[in-house]
Amino acid sequence: MQLLTLGVNHHTAPLAIREQVAFGPEKLVQALHELTQSRRASEVAILSTCNRTELYVNTPSPDDVTQWLADFHHIERRELAPYLYALPREKAAQHAFRVAAGLDSMVLGETQILGQMKQAVAAAEEAGTLGLLLHKLFQRTFSVAKEVRSSTEIGANSVSMAAAAVRLAER
Predict the structure, then answer these.
(1) For 72-122, what is each residue's pLDDT tens digit?
(2) Please, which residues bridge with residue 44 across strands?
(3) What superfamily in CATH does domain 2-170 come from?
């Protein structure tokens, strides 16, 4: 078993692909249960926003999780593969830290992603798919995000994408 983050985001995939692999609220619980009951992962949390879909899993087989994601969304794996990233172990944790702190957001320092990540963790906990490894990962992630925000000015000037576009257009 290993910690893995598998996903697509605004850096790696166009909107059409991100929309295809998004998990709406009506599919989220089904997906959490299906992935753990299939034994492809012993733990899973899914972060799905307009800019990213990421599966944080404890898995014996990253390839199986990739195939499951393609199958769940009825997409050919070969069509999805060019846009996917798979981050093992420490890289998965570092990525979670960056995401929660707003360092991987379309607008640097935006704060909404931390709340979205907390909602993803709460959904996994409620579904019974958040085990010890992911619980520890996310507790540390939220601590790091808080530290980044309190010890830097990262969020001081963050704005929504719409507000940034308006400011740019006014120039």
Answers:
(1) 999 999 999 999 999 999 999 999 999 999 988 887 777 899 999 999 999
(2) 57
(3) Glutamyl-tRNA reductase, N-terminal domain (3.30.460.30)
With CA atoms as reference, report the closest residue to 97 among 139, 62, 131. Answer: 139
Q: What is the pLDDT of residue 14?
A: 97
Which is the catalytic residue, given 2, 11, 15, 50? 50
Residue segments in the chain with a per-residue pLDDT below the cut of 70? 154-171
DSSP states of the chain as a string? Answer: -EEEEEEEETTTS-HHHHHHT---HHHHHHHHHHHHHTTS-SEEEEEE-SSEEEEEEEES-HHHHHHHHHHHTT--HHHHGGG-EEEEHHHHHHHHHHHHTTTTSSSTT-SHHHHHHHHHHHHHHHHT---HHHHHHHHHHHHHHHHHHHHS-TTTT---HHHHHHHHHH-
Query: How far, in Å, CA of 49 to CA of 125, rounded?
Result: 18
Report the candidate in 52, 45, 57 with the shortest Cα–Cα distance to residue 22.
52
Q: Check residue 157 and give its pLDDT.
A: 58
Cβ neighbors of 142 (< 8 A, separation 6 or more) are 100, 114, 117, 118
To the query of whether residue 87 is one of the catalytic residues in this protein, the response is: no
